[in-house]
Amino acid sequence: xxxxxxxxxxxxPASPLITLAEARVWCHEDSTDQDALLQLxxxxxxxxxxxxxxxxxxxxxxxxxxxxxxSFAHEIRLPLAPLIAVTSVSWKDAxxxxxxxxxxxxxxxxxxxxxxxxxxxxxxWPTPAIRPDAVSITAQLxxxxxxxxxxxxxxxAAQLAIADGYANREAQIVGTIVAxxxxxxxxxxxxxxxxx
Length: 196
Known about the structure:
Low-confidence stretches: none
Helix content: 10-25%
Shape: elongated
């Protein structure tokens, strides 16, 4: 099994998961006076759910990631889903120059665990240099190009987190019993990926 390096996002989503206008509605805020705070809450909720920092193990709106490995294998699993497309597979030769693998050499699928790049029948991988970043796979991941492509349950959970952060701005609330939202946890449960 190839040893992975930390994935790198090379292209961020083109649009936000939740807009400021949507956050204002959820937080019952009629003016733009609190937009800086709302944007901070949107960014925090998105970060909690999306990409490598997210608790779901998923990319939400289309984005591009590069995954580096120390070698090839018959199957190379990617740690994020859902897969839109593998845009390139490359390797570094002995002098360190990057070479591109022909798309006929491999195919990409997504099984119940994660996206996987598999060696095609009758093909063989080239021999890369011995280095931690010898093999690179670039892939576009996400549900689609806009927030409307993201499942409603995920967007709903993000809105709950934003509204909660807006209403409860202190680290501790004295004299009040606070319970974590079962609705949010139940909503997200079906979208969490199992660890690889």
